[in-house]
């Protein structure tokens, strides 16, 4: 059943007042599995329909299929896009070429090799809490840690890392915009910074071509695999994509995760006794409070029938993952945080061909960070509940998270 309503549900989802708790709106959304908004766009919030559409090739991710032709979405010179904004066969080829330098089957040990480094980075950041009784977990850990990790993955030398901390801050700014004029200014600034990051990667790629190392950029620029090598433009788009996609998401994962755990001290107690529980806790945290609340910008390239409704060709469709994850048709008592639940097929990393490329890295980063926080902070507790949130509705998480504690264990 399609429903047209006087009030745009999307407007209410974007309303900053709903940031701390968007879940009642999602409950309303799920009453109409496929909802047509006033402006002709579609919102889908039920688990089964989201899964169906994530796997439907008639829903395009290609920015050039959008009604505006992808204006403002191109990262490269002219109108070139990274693989998150492409369809097969271009998407699949570029994703395979990138994966050869990131994970199995070609580099099965690469990510595991980063674990010790991650543990050291987190340890040093928590060591710095000593002598204090309150910290902002976002500024002190959740924000800087993923930048350091993605720089390691790509092969950015440590001395250049501060540049990336600055750039990432600028690149995500459009998501914090307070209105159309502000958005335009922030977009311009983000574009300038992306262009700087591309120039930087072009220089670093040249160095790695001459003297390759054990990092992703070296792999991308020296690849002699059966499918050939990425073009320079695609390589730069991929490096910038990994920087952006790998950052804000993980910051919010660690922020939302810390918040949920502090609201459930009995789970913190269990984690202290059973540290291996962190793997299950992670899956439940991402289901319960997903950092990526929705996937916007899919476009139908044909009429698509779903949930009893036909979405017409050329419609913009938003898949509300955060709602699908709380659908009672997916798991019983979905508003309860329960690491013991058996349902594991959450939508936190999307699904289908665009399923999160960095999921194993994100899992490892979050498990290391939350595992160490739980183990080392004595009697941690929230100072403000709810905390102040970032403006961004789709990449949702706390802007600050003040945590008080009695001491720091070794
Ligand atoms: C907890 C943290 C993370 C979450 C919740 C998350 C979530 C997602 C989601 C929902 C998608 C699907 C987007 C779509 O369908 O259009 C996605 C795609 C992607 N993610 Fe992540 N992500 C996380 C961390 C990372 C990290 C650390 C990296 C970097 C290594 C990364 C790289 C990517 C890339 C490259 C894509 C595009 C995949 C494709 O188009 O084939 N993500 N992510």
Automatic annotation (TrEMBL):
This is Cytochrome P450. InterPro entries: Cyt_P450 (IPR001128), Cyt_P450_B (IPR002397), Cyt_P450_CS (IPR017972), Cyt_P450_sf (IPR036396). One of its GO terms (molecular function) is oxidoreductase activity, acting on paired donors, with incorporation or reduction of molecular oxygen. Belongs to the cytochrome P450 family. PANTHER family: CYTOCHROME P450 YJIB-RELATED (PTHR46696:SF1), P450, PUTATIVE (EUROFUNG)-RELATED (PTHR46696). Keywords: Heme, Iron, Metal-binding, Monooxygenase, Oxidoreductase. Signal peptide: none annotated. Coiled coil: none annotated. The keyword Metal-binding applies. SUPFAM superfamilies: Cytochrome P450.
